[in-house]
Each structure stands twice: as C-alpha cells, then as structure tokens.
Write a structure and sequence with these properties.
Organism (chains A, B, C, D): Halorientalis brevis
Structural class of chain A: alpha/beta
GO molecular function (chains A, B, C, D): aspartate-semialdehyde dehydrogenase activity
Largest sheet of chain A: 6 strands, parallel
CATH class of the largest domain in chain A: Alpha Beta
Pfam family, one (chains A, B, C, D): Semialdhyde_dhC
Number of helices of chain A: 11
Distance between the termini of chain A: 12 Å
Oligomer: homotetramer
CATH architecture of the largest domain in chain A: 2-Layer Sandwich
EC number (chains A, B, C, D): 1.2.1.11
CATH superfamily of the largest domain in chain A: Dihydrodipicolinate Reductase, domain 2
Strand content of chain A: 15-25%
Protein name (chains A, B, C, D): Aspartate-semialdehyde dehydrogenase
Chain lengths: ~350, ~350, ~350, ~350
C-alpha cells in the first residue's frame, strides 16, 4: 500500500530534490505536481528546468503539471509536500489543509505559530501532537506540519544531544552557508565569486527562534520554548551545497570535549526509511567536516560534527549538513514519513 | 633623509607586498633584499616569482638578492622588515638584532614573549617601551618588534574601541579567511573550490592570546594582558584576499548598537604615513563589509565593520580587513613607521 | 571647454563603469543620467545599486535620474553614451538621434547595419565617415556610432595587426568569458561555480559578423566587409572580469611567431585620452596573459597577447582584455573621444 | 577466478580513484599497493591522505603499502596499474615489465614509442597487437600498455567517429580543463580562483601527437599515425573535475551537423565491465555538456558532446569527459579489462 503524494511548487530547486528523493521511495508514489498557473498543463519536463545531477525520472517527466490550487489536485492524494515560496504558501497552504489535505511543508511561514508542529523527526517527534490542537483551533480536517530552516536543521541535532545530556544555556552560532540555500537564482555569480556576504535577511532570526521551539517541551497542549539564549550570525560563501556552522554551546554542567562528542554519537535516531543509521557522525580530524567532502554522508541525510574545544562555560564545535537534502527536501520527506508512521495518513 | 631598509624573506607573498608598499614610500628606501641561499646572487626579478597585480618596480627588479645572514646585509641598513617563515626566523631574527639591527617582523615566533612589543600602532603604540626591557634582558643593541597575525589584526581595532569605551569581558569570533593568508602555495585549489575548511592550525590560539596581549596595559615594565575570555573558530573559504569575521563582544556596560558603532567611528588613529585617515569604517548596510568590495578601502589599510546587533551581554558585529595589506605587509610597515616616529632609528 | 554628456541606462553594470570612467575625465562632464521610469526622480545613489570597487563619486550620487526619453534630457547635452539593454535601445536610441543627439552606444542593436559606424578607434576610425551616409539616408541630425561586443573587441586588435601585415584568411576562436559580461545578474552562482557553460546565446554570431565589419574597408560610401572565414566558440567560466581567447589565425603570407608578435607590438594606436600608450602588450611567458593578473594593465584599456605557436597556415595565440573596461564602458568612451577629436561635437 | 592486481603509486589522486573503482570490481582483486619508500610499511590509511568523496574501503585501509620495487610486489600479482609520476615511472615501469608483470599504465612516458600500445579500448583495441612487437624488440616477458592523457581521451572518441564515417583532415581544439587534472597539489588556489591559465606545459603536444597515434592504423607490425593536422590550445579553469573542449573538425566529405551527431551516436563501443552502454552521448541542448552537470554520466565513463555547428570545411562541437574517471583511472582500468578479455593475463 503506497501513499499517493503531491508536490506543491514542484519545479523549484527544493521541488526537484523532493522528486529525486520520492521517485524511488518505498512508501510514496508521486500522484500530483503543481506549479504556477503559467506552467499548468505542461509536462513536467517542459515546465521544470531540471538541474539535479541525476537525470529526471522518465515517468515523472511525462506527468502533467497542474496549478497550485486545491481544486486541481486529485482528492485521492493523501499527502502533500510543499516547497512553495513563502509568499505564495501564506494563502494557499491553509486552503489545502482546510480542504482536508495532510501537508508536510518546507515553507517558512507559520513555523513559529503556536499550533503548528515544527519538527525534526529524530529530535522532537512528539510535537506532532499539536495537530490535535491545530484541528481544534482552526477547524481543519487536514493537518499542517513544518520543518525548520536548513541552517537551523544543521545545528539542532547536536544541540539537542547536548541539551538532553547536560542542559543547554547559551548558543552562539556563525554559519558558512552554500548558495543553493537561496534557491537556484538566489545568489548571482558576481555577488559571491571571490567574496562572502555577512548577512542573510531573516536567517539569523529563524535560527534563533526555530531552535528554541524545536528544543522546547510539548506538554500535550502547547510547546514551552527552550529558554537558551541563541544568537546567530549568518554568512553566504562560494560553496554549492552544505552548510557549515561554528557553534559555541554553553551548558549547565561542566563538560569535556569527549563528553560532548559522546553525547552526540549516542544520540538516538528514529527509524524512518530516509533517516540515517546514525544521526550524528563525529569526526576526530580537527579539519572536518568540510562541505564538499562530507555533505553526502549517508545519502546527504547525516549531520557531521567535529573540531571540539573546551570553553569556559561549555564547548565549541563545528557542524555540517547538506542543506537541500537533510536541510530542506529530505527534512520534508522525513516529516512525511513521520506522519505515516504516526498514523496521520 | 630617507631610512635605508632591508626585507628579509623578500621573495615570498608578504615580501612582495612589502616591496610594493615600500617602493613609493616617502621615508624608506630599499637597500637590501634577502632570501634563501639558493636565491642569493640572483637578481630579484629572477629570484622572485612576482605575483602582485602591479608590475615589479624596475629598480627593485635589478637588485641582487643576498642570503638571509647578518654578514650579507650592509651595515648602513637602518631597518629590517622580516617576513621570514617562522621556522627560519626562530634563529635568524635574533642573530640580526644582536648584531644591532632594528627589526619590524611579521613572523609568528616571539610574538607573545614578555619583552617583545606586539603592536598595532593605532592601538597600543606605548608597548614600544618594551624595547628598553628587551635590551636590558637580552643585551641586544638593536630592537625587535612584532605585528600580530592577520586574523587578529582584523578584530582588535574594533575590540579596542569597545574596551576603551565600555570595558570588554568576553569575545567569541568566527573567521572566514582568504586563501592568501596561507601564502601563495598554502591552499591547493582541490582543497578549497566548492568547499570550506573549519580549522586553521594554530590560528585559533594566536587570535586568543595575541588579542589579550594587544589589549593589555603596559606599566613601564611589563604588559598586563587583558583578561577578556576570547574563543576563536577559524575557517578558510574560497576568497583570495580579505578576512571577514563575525564577533560577539560582551561588555561591562550595557550598550546599544549605536553606542558600539559610535565608539568605533570615533576611535582615534595615529598619524603615520601609511595609516588610514579613519581607522575603522562603519557600514550602515547590514550586508557589508564584504571581502571583494571592501578590502581595498583606503589602500587596503582600513578596517571595516557592520551588521551590529544587540545581544544579552553586549553586541555582535562583523569586521573585515585586507589580510596581506592591513594584516601583514602593511602591519609591518606601520610598525616600521612607528619606530621611526618614536626615534628608534 | 568640457563636453556635457549623458548616460542612458546609467544604473546598470556598464552604466556604472561609464560613470566611474567619465567622472575624472578631462573633456567630459556628466550632465544627465537616465534609467527606467521607475527610477526617475530618485537620486542616483538611491536608484543605482552601486557595485564598482571604488566609491560612488559624491557629486554623481546626488544627481537626479530622469527617464530614458529625449524630452527628459536637457538640450544642452552634447553627447550621449548608451548602455541600454538592446531590447530597450531598439526604439529609444533612434528617437534620441532623430532629436539631434550624438550618441556613442554599447547596445548590440544596429551594429551590423550598413550605415552605422561600428568602430574601435585604434582600428578603424575612418569608418566614422558612415555618419554622413547615415544622415543622408535616415534624415538624422545627430549621429549614432556603436562599439562591438566585448568578446569581439578582445581579438580584433591583434587580428587587425596580422591582417595589415600579412593578410588574414581564416580565424578560429574559442573564448573563456567572465561572468560580468552577462551583466550583474546574468549568471547565477549555481550555474557557474565548479562549472563552465559552452555556449553564449548570440555571442558566436556577433564575434563572426562584427569582426568582419570592423576589419572591412570603408570606401567613402560603404564598408566592404572582410572576407576572412571566422568561426567562434564561446564559453562562460567562473571568472569575474577579463575575457581570455584562444585564436588560430591563418594568413596569406607564411609567418613565424616572431613575425606575428612584432606586428602586434608595432601596431599603431591612436592618441585619445583614454587609449593606452601601447594598444597591444606582447607577453613572452607562455602562460600569460591571465585574466586576474593582466586585465587591469594600463587601467584596463590594453589588450594582452601571448602563447604564440606556429601552425600549418598561420599562428595560434591567446589574447585578453577587460570586458567591461576595454570591452564595454571604455570602448564607448573611446568612441566618444573619437567623435570629439573628429569634430562631430 | 579473480585477477590479482597491484596499484603502483597508490596514494596519489589517480591511485585513489583506481582503488575506488577496483574495490567493487567483478574481476579484479587488490593484492598490492605501492608508494614511495617513505610510505612503505605503513597501512594504506596512514600512507594516503584519502580525498575521494566516498569513504576509503575498510579492507584497503588496512593493507600495508610497499615500496615501488619489483622485489616488493608479490609474484602472484597478475596485473599492475601504474599511476606513477612520469619521472618515477621512466625507470621503474620497465623494471617491472622485464620482471614479467603485465602493466596498464597512466604515466605519460613511453606513450608515443613505436612498440607501446596506446589504447582506448572502445577506439583502437587492435593496437594491443604491438605487445608482440614489444616483446620481440625488448625481450620483455610481461607487457606494457598505456592510456592517453585525459585531455586527449575526451576528444578522440568523437573524432574517431567522424574519421570512420567521413575522413578527418584538420583538428583545432581548445580545452577548459579541471584542476584535478594536475593532481591534488598541482594548482594552488591563488593561481586559479577568479582566473584561467592559458597554457599547460606539454599538454598541447600530448593532445596533438597522442591523437594521431590513437587514430592510426595498426598493420600487424606498426601503427601508421593518422595524418590529420591537429593543433591544441590548453587552458586550466576553476573547475574541479571534467574537461570541456571546443573542437573544430574538418572532414574529407561535406557533412551536416546531423551527420556528425549521428556518427557519434552510433559509434560502436566495446563490451567491457567498465565501459558505458553508449560511449558518446549527444546533447540536443546547445549549452550542454557542462562539467558539473554531465561529468558523472554513466558513472563518469561516458563522453558527452553537443553544440554542433557547420563550418566551411566540417563541423565544430563541444565534448566533455570526467578527467580522472574516464580520463585517467577509468582509462587504465578499461585497458586492464581489455588485457584480460584479449587473453594477456
């Protein structure tokens, strides 16, 4: 029994990754692809400028794209993945959920709303319980869950491991983010060759608020956000894929670098089809992880850490994840798998 | 009256920048160029693989390179600039100073020795007083002063401005460093294209210790190092020149971002031939400074800052300087100008 | 007596370069800046996102931008430089010239029209004579002259030197073009990092036809295009500025590499304020010219060549020029200087 | 029955690729790894700085590296792959073959010697017959065959297709070569970021002579080199992997672009374990093949072509192959497979 899934915003960079990952998926079957009305009626091959390194799957290429409208998507689609631009998703995503669809969305809107689960399945699967709250409050038949921003996803698993073991107080994080995080056309070559950009609009705030929500406690009615003091500084650099982050994490208990590494190595993962065998890989080499060498570990779904050093109040370390695999498309896919596992489909 | 100067290690990347900057200098005249013994006897044109964007000065090109040995450098040379590899400088630099030469050195050895002035002329010119201590203790006729590491130089001027105005307590700094900081052959293209390297051997320690010494108080006999808690995380990225740094600075007083910007804008510079009119330029745009756009401000000698945000205990901001101009060759040149100004030549 | 000039399309990449070059110009004074109607009424500082490495000139920053319309440009402007997108220039450029303005344009439209001078002042200044033909045929009071495409400008001076000395028959040229040639937003970072694009739409044809017209003979009434067989293959690579080109040039006479180099070295330049002392610099080193090292020779206005090898029917060599200095803004500026020199203003 | 193979020069970039490709090979089993004497005695994990994107195979990691000396390699090794630097291979490779080993070598020495087969299995497998000549003349018990240079391998399959169908006369080729072609440390980041280098020492000659030998006819006693006039211009650009080449091929018969494409599409491949199903992929899109998007087609073993245009005497087109897969390690591996297939092991 496969689940029939649709992808909203299927022609964009994240949409393409989603299709690449869903096509061979054991439980999901592509049943609908939506895009802007100018693409509706075209074959996916015509509508999408395919830029993934593996060829476009043949059967997907011949599917007909429909407009991003609940009336255009077949009713027997069980699950929607949304990679809509947030300006588009603002109005359209609720329309789908009101119509009864269950949605795993990568769009940034609604992420910090009280009744919207923001989940990384390996970290806070219980936040899915907010779906009941959401249905009560909004009168929705369907459900909407969100995955966090790609830069947030990279650091939260190691932070969650530290928090669980030693209690987290303060976080300072500086990011070196790949250009693909801004979408295919997001960063021009003139902006970034031989350069770096020390600010990504809205990204600092997302990292600070989303991580507090992700690390928060769900008490059955609401999520008590974590009170760690998080400050982020986000930079764009000339790499294609893979966000590298320098983190200073202060903890309640005094810890050694080995304590920290151990907590991350042993952090329990959830068993979903797309989740890696080990969520966090710990490098011994001080100059790893590196984006190009390590972003594709475990099919791009593993988070890597390394470079541990003790500080006065905790540890500093580096972490890395593939921003469009673990960080966007794969994050949504995992959330879809979680919805299936937890009986929401 | 021009000062006759020599450059030790004249064929390397920093040596070439020094020559480019000294050639048109109002007070300095190139009188000796040294390199390894394999280059001795050759013209500078033959010995150096010139890689600076401006052509090699004609008169310099025809100078004969001599070995890096006190016996080979003419006695009437008044001032030596050293850009020797630290492994070479370890033995050779003291030999020159014992011989009576006054030396401004960029090599990393001796930088944190008690009796060696480590100076940024605009920040701690009074540390030059250590020369008397040095002469007493080591029996040297000459003098040796050092400039800090390029990544340290970038952040210390803005930190000094904050410290002077509000008292500095904690510093966290994450760097995005250009490949030229490792020398011409230091980073291979296979290592860095589409990549970033989250560790630079020894660099983190240099930033942590050198900044404490630079911000310290000289009491006439010794430098009391600043007790700020400094932790650094150093990254190499695919840029050619210009180190960009994300800084979190905690201060004793509560400050706003405008307080911080104001203190930096008004930080007093010293008047030396190569020092910029304004030491620190404050950008209003949140996405500046950027390496390629801003590294050459004021002939590569200005430090730029921007991106101020308030944090719980202070401010975060970004800073940038040209690592081989302000950060290495220009830093040594400024120290040479300071030695002249203060009557040591 | 300075000439009052206007820049059409002043906010784009070529427009910015033009302003950077015109601001300190001995004979030209900026009197009008135009842009799309959405920018009209704003200060230039507001309207343009300034991306040149030198700061925006203060007086220019405060000028008010007007719409690109003959009625909006003051009548006492003597000379217009156009860097309009070709789709815009198609209709608007003739409107200005009909109105009596003299125009030096970088836009690609009209370049191969029979009565439009397409000129590189150092190569074919006599083609300016077409202005009389143009006035007769079109009834224009003003005048319109064009400069060629940046990739064409790079190779035509060395080809002209060979043609003049030995007669040119066949040309094969392969280009390695910088991203700035496509405008600031023309090439995304995802397209070009760790990549190359072996085709630039329309560029091959431009190189083939424009070079034949430039090397043609003007007989007082029309230009007899050169009958050399020219075939081009154009590639975009991850460099910022500077087009590098591999050329095979077959000649009527048998020549040595030294014959070819000599002809280029001795090729006579014209004496205009912005023209370089020597038009073509010949490198002896086989691995030069290189874009980053050599694009700024003589303020970006010199063409460099090197790598000569004999072939069965001629020579092969490499050439380089700065595509937005020599190749676009500087090319238009030189044409403006030629118009002044020849009495058209 | 697997063949026991050894890799000479196993720690270098090509050696690492060879190991990555041999490890899962159906017919070959790694039995010996050699490196310089300083690495002898170490485990491969210690001796090699592994830089391939897939992890080092566990069993290979624990193998002990021996010196590159016939006495150190077990006698029961049936086949040697050599990726030695040519300066090392000059003396050592013949020593192994005299000792009876059969060798498939990627080193550039001996490639154009009369009695050394230089082969691309899909193009000129019959040249293997030179082994008999070689044994007669040199008194060798073993055998030595070579694969061509990576830049030659990229263009020869499409040229062979044209030659077979229409007769090849003249070739002009301009290359855009990746940095990995120079080995891991071959090109520094300072040399190539925002730059291109219009010359690769010796590479032009290799492309010109090797292609003539590869396209030559073996008459049972010697190879009659093809008399096509080949001229190459080689450039290094800032890409990691994948050589892109612009080719002008003149043919005896008049041909259309579709004739050329058809000949390439239908060019017959040989059936070896590592050879692609189709040797040459023809792109319809004018801006393909591109290095990053297309280098890994068919596991990096396919050659891609596109951008056909008619010229006066033939066609121009672009071609691309992965320089360390199809171009070096994979080329040697294919030659090893050919030796097995043809009964030389």
């Amino acid at each position: 029994m496969t689940v029939r899934v649709g992808v909203l915003g299927a022609t964009g960079a994240v949409g393409q990754r989603l299709i690449q990952m869903i096509d061979p998926h054991p439980d999901f079957e592509l049943a609908a692809l939506t895009a802007s009305s100018s693409s509706a009626g075209k074959s996916y091959r015509e509508a999408a400028k395919w830029r993934v390194e593996t060829p476009i799957p043949d059967d997907v290429a011949e599917m007909t794209v429909v407009a991003t409208d609940p009336d255009e998507v077949p009713d027997d689609v069980d699950l929607l993945f949304s990679s809509l631009p947030s300006s588009v998703g603002e109005d359209v995503e609720p329309a789908f959920v009101e119509d009864g669809y269950v949605m795993s969305s990568n769009s940034s809107n609604f992420r910090t709303d009280d009744d919207i689960p923001l989940t990384i399945p390996e970290v806070n699967p219980d936040h899915l319980g907010l779906i009941e709250v959401q249905r009560d409050e909004r009168g929705w038949d369907g459900a909407m869950i969100k995955n966090p921003n790609c830069s947030t996803i990279t650091m939260v698993p190691p932070l969650a491991a530290l928090d669980e073991a030693f209690g987290l107080t303060d976080v300072r994080v500086s990011t070196l983010q790949a250009v693909s995080g801004a979408g295919y056309d997001g960063v021009t070559s003139m902006e970034i060759i031989d350069n770096a950009i020390p600010h990504i609009g809205g990204e600092e705030q997302k990292m600070e608020t989303e991580s507090q929500k992700l690390l928060g406690e769900f008490d059955g009615a609401e999520v008590q956000w974590h009170d760690a003091d998080v400050a982020a500084s986000c930079n764009r650099i000339p790499t294609l894929d893979g966000h590298l982050e320098n983190v200073w994490a202060d903890t309640e208990e005094d810890i050694t670098t080995e304590d920290a590494a151990e907590a991350m190595r042993e952090y329990e993962s959830i068993d979903l089809p797309t989740s890696p065998d080990q969520l966090i890989h710990v490098f011994e080499e001080p100059d790893r992880p590196q984006p190009r060498l390590d972003r594709m570990r475990d099919d791009g779904m593993q988070v890597s850490v390394g470079g541990f050093r003790e500080t006065t109040d905790g540890v500093q370390f580096n972490c890395l994840a593939h921003n469009t695999m673990r960080g966007a498309a794969g994050a949504s896919l995992l959330n879809g798998e979680l919805l299936l596992e937890e009986g929401y489909l």
